[in-house]
Design goal:
By secondary structure, this protein is α/β, with parallel strands linked by helices. Helix content is 34%, strand content 18%. The protein has an eight-stranded mixed sheet with strand order 3-4-2-1-5-6-7-8, with helices on both faces. The longest helix is centred in the middle third of the chain and has 16 residues, at 154-169.
Length: 336
């Protein structure tokens, strides 16, 4: 007789908000939590209050119980069977993640969870609290966040502290790439489990909506689709594109993430070339059409974990041109 598998009660801490596509972490948390619910587990995700950093208000989904408000004081609700618990925090970027991670962890101590799953290095700074109370912890390191160009000073030290807390206290550590696995083994002697990101098989779409909205036709544009943050390397791309002689457009799709000054700088650079189109944050069918009809997808990033957008671009059959950092090369292998 097959042994009955224990149904677990799981908390997830570290993302910004679901449902949203604010970044790869949010995509992973939503997909992982939904699949765990389908397998019979009870999953609670701890959202941060406030608007998505993409600049878009949280939108309603057909299977999301209740409405999101615009006041940052959303009520507890369910989405795809996942219980969503919203943690209040500051609207400013400096202490947002610190306050959220601390309050979410304290709240989770009273949830009688079998597992608290922390995502990203910053939130892992609180993993010692859960460990002290003998709650089983898992840490997924989505990237070496302290390397990211937008951080500095206290933020960088805090992220490094979170990394070290994960190494010391997490019962299990998950990494997304062989490069990160080697980093933790070499730097700390800590063994980790390699679980790369994945994406679902997409539906290839026509260019109807993007033609109506921006006049874009199939194979007539180069696509950059990512958060507008320094480590994604958009400034390299704009400089290089300015030197090219092509009638193809450069489409830049994405919102900022605590990087308003950088966003303004990129908008000023883009405005100097009438071939460049900045769409802002995209999702749904517009996103699918942009992937489906791009001539080439470009990701000139300095730092990555395992980029969801690159995996998605490959899944659409795009020709992909990426920077030669280990995490990108590991994804494209001989297919880019």
């Amino acid at each position: 007789m097959e042994k009955t598998r224990k149904k677990l009660k799981i908390a997830m801490i570290g993302h910004k908000r679901i449902p949203s596509r604010e970044g790869g972490v949010e995509v992973v948390v939503e997909e992982l939590a939904a699949r765990m619910v389908q397998n019979g587990h009870e999953v609670h995700v701890y959202n941060r209050s406030g608007h998505p950093v993409s600049g878009q208000k949280n939108e309603n989904h057909a299977d999301c119980a209740g409405k999101y408000t615009n006041k940052g004081n959303e009520k507890i609700k369910k989405y795809k069977g996942i219980r969503i618990i919203t943690i209040p925090t500051f609207s400013g970027k400096r202490l947002n993640a610190v306050v959220y991670s601390f309050l979410a962890t304290i709240r989770a101590l009273f949830g009688k969870y079998d597992v608290i799953h922390y995502h990203a290095e910053g939130p892992c700074a609180m993993i010692g609290i859960a460990h002290f109370f003998h709650i089983h912890t898992v840490a997924t390191i989505h990237g070496l966040d302290w390397q990211r160009a937008k951080w500095g000073g206290f933020a960088t030290r805090f992220l490094l502290f979170g990394e070290k807390m994960a190494v010391k206290y997490a019962d299990e550590m998950i990494v997304l790439s062989k490069n990160m696995q080697e980093y933790f083994l070499k730097t700390y002697g800590r063994k980790t489990t390699l679980i790369p990101n994945g994406v679902s098989k997409p539906e290839i779409r026509s260019d109807r909506l993007i033609y109506e909205k921006w006049g874009l036709k199939k194979d007539e544009y180069i696509l950059f689709l990512a958060r507008i943050v320094p480590e994604k390397g958009l400034h390299y791309l704009l400089e290089a594109f300015r030197e090219t002689e092509t009638e193809k457009k450069l489409v830049i799709a994405g919102g900022s993430s605590h990087t308003d000054n950088y966003m303004r700088e990129m908008q000023e650079k883009a405005a100097k070339d009438d071939r460049v189109l900045m769409t802002g944050f995209v999702q749904g069918e517009i996103l699918e059409e942009l992937y489906s009809n791009a001539y080439i997808y470009v990701l000139p990033s300095d730092v990555e974990g395992m980029p969801i957008s690159l995996l998605e671009a490959l899944s659409y059959g795009n020709c992909c041109l990426v920077s030669d950092i280990a995490e990108n090369v590991e994804v494209i292998r001989d297919a880019g």
